[in-house]
């Protein structure tokens, strides 16, 4: 099914079976397959207020696929070929280590990273861990729209801080008296990650681009974050990232003083949706 065919099916369901009018479809979360994007571009013609949000976990997973580790990739390819289909080897591994051997799955997030973790490729583990945790947190339940921006910030900070404890420990142990060689190995290892980091920066590195702008603005709907941010009328303009709120911005600005006053006394255990 191509994008046009999928769009036709979606429009049939939305407009005929569900009888949704053009202003009633507000947002869509979807897999990032190209056919879905093409279909949504057509659907937006009938539903212009639609906010189209692709799967963030998919983006984070694709970052890892862009890490360029030629030596490790060759090793992992042989590891999978030699051991993944041998029940005897798996049994011996479990007997020796006390836990089951991690297997590779084409469909499970970061399964290749889990194998990398066993062989301790330091640079990938040090930085990849932040992407892995973010991937699974964004696959969770709850009010994710209110926490997505913080998850993105955590990863940005991990990249900026450049803390590679495993990598540093390994190069120090390998070459304790050669600082120049240590620096060369660290630079090479971090360089292997650059293509993945460039991809992340292109997709989620800019606060002004969607969907990051929408997730950043969504924090204004949390009384806890409002207390922390203390937004002004200018901050309310950020909510224009949600197409269906564009006509409500002035009303929201009018309500902001009262909203801030109400949010000031909110208990930490309050249900945000009910509040």
TrEMBL record:
Keywords: Nucleotidyltransferase, RNA-directed DNA polymerase, Transferase. It comes from the Eukaryota. InterPro entries: RNaseH-like_sf. SUPFAM superfamilies: Ribonuclease H-like. One of its GO terms (molecular function) is RNA-directed DNA polymerase activity. The keyword Transferase applies. This is RNA-directed DNA polymerase from transposon BS. It comes from Paramuricea clavata.
């Amino acid at each position: 099914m191509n994008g046009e065919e999928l769009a036709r099916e979606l429009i049939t369901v939305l407009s005929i079976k569900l009888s949704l009018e053009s202003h009633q479809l507000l947002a869509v979360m979807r897999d990032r397959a190209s056919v879905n994007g093409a279909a949504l571009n057509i659907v937006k013609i009938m539903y212009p207020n639609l906010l189209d949000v692709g799967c963030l976990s998919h983006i984070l997973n694709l970052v890892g696929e862009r890490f360029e580790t030629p030596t490790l990739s060759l090793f992992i390819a042989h590891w999978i070929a030699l051991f993944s289909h041998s029940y005897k080897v798996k049994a011996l591994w479990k007997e020796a280590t006390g836990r089951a051997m991690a297997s590779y799955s084409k469909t499970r997030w970061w399964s290749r990273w889990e194998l990398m973790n066993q062989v301790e490729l330091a640079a990938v583990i040090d930085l990849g861990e932040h992407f892995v945790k973010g991937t699974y947190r964004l696959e969770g339940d709850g009010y994710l729209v209110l926490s997505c921006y913080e998850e993105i910030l955590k990863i940005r900070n991990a990249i900026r801080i450049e803390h590679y404890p495993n990598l540093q420990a390994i190069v120090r142990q390998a070459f304790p008296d050669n600082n120049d060689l240590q620096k060369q190995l660290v630079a090479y290892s971090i360089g292997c990650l650059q293509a993945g980091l460039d991809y992340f920066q292109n997709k989620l590195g800019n606060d002004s681009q969607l969907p990051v702008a929408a997730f950043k603005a969504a924090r204004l709907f949390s009384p806890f974050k409002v207390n922390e941010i203390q937004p002004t009328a200018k901050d309310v303009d950020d909510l224009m990232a949600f197409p269906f709120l564009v006509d409500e911005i002035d009303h929201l600005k009018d309500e902001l003083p009262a909203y801030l006053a109400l949010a000031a006394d909110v208990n930490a255990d309050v249900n945000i949706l009910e509040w």
